[in-house]
Amino acid sequence: MLKNIDPALNADVLHALRSMGHADTLALVDTNFPADAIARQTTLGKLLHMDNIPAARAMRAILSVFPLDTPLQPSVGRMEVMGDPDQIPAPQQEVQAEIDAVEGKTTSMYGIERFAFYEHARKAYCVITTGETRFYGCFLLTKGVIPPAAEL
Q1: How do residues 32-52 score in pLDDT, each as one tens digit?
Q2: Considering only CA atoms, which of 136, 135, 133, 132 is closest in space to residue 55?
């Protein structure tokens, strides 16, 4: 156990988040996503787990240490619902609330068509699978930067 580190963040996930650089992406995915096969094609080359944790809870844990690239671009993508790309299902609504809480403002997610999402995930630094069992609990995060203390 560590102080001030969310216990949902295991050592493998923390190592990956710390190893990522500015503009690297990670795929945070639900239990239905072909996570292992796609994770083998990423920079890290292996699947990371946040098992038994819903997507929103996993997002909260990740965002407790992970800076989003929000000043420059939309930094969180969501897998679009097939046939209804503007629909925002419950897991995505819950994740949006976590993002807004961390950022202190509404930071809209951008939609990514399902098969395009798979392609983006293959190019990501890593894939982290959650315990989210509901459909469309898949997200792509772009890492930002942390400015020097003097610039805060």
Answers
A1: 999 999 999 999 999 999 999
A2: 132
Side-chain-side CA neighbours of residue 19 (13 Å):
12
DSSP 23: T
Contact 61, 4 (CB under 8 A): no
87-120: per-residue pLDDT in tens?
Answer: 999 999 999 999 999 988 888 899 999 999 999 9
Rounded-to-5 percentages of helix, strand, coil across the chain: 30, 20, 50
**Residues forming the active site:** 22
pLDDT value at position 3? 92
CATH number of 107's domain: 3.40.1650.10
CB 124 within 8 A of CB 42: yes
- DSSP H helices, the chain, are 11-19, 35-39, 55-63, 90-103, 114-122
11 falls within a domain? no
**Tokens 């809870």 identify what position?**
57
Tell me whether residue 37 is in a domain: yes
Number of domains in the chain: 1
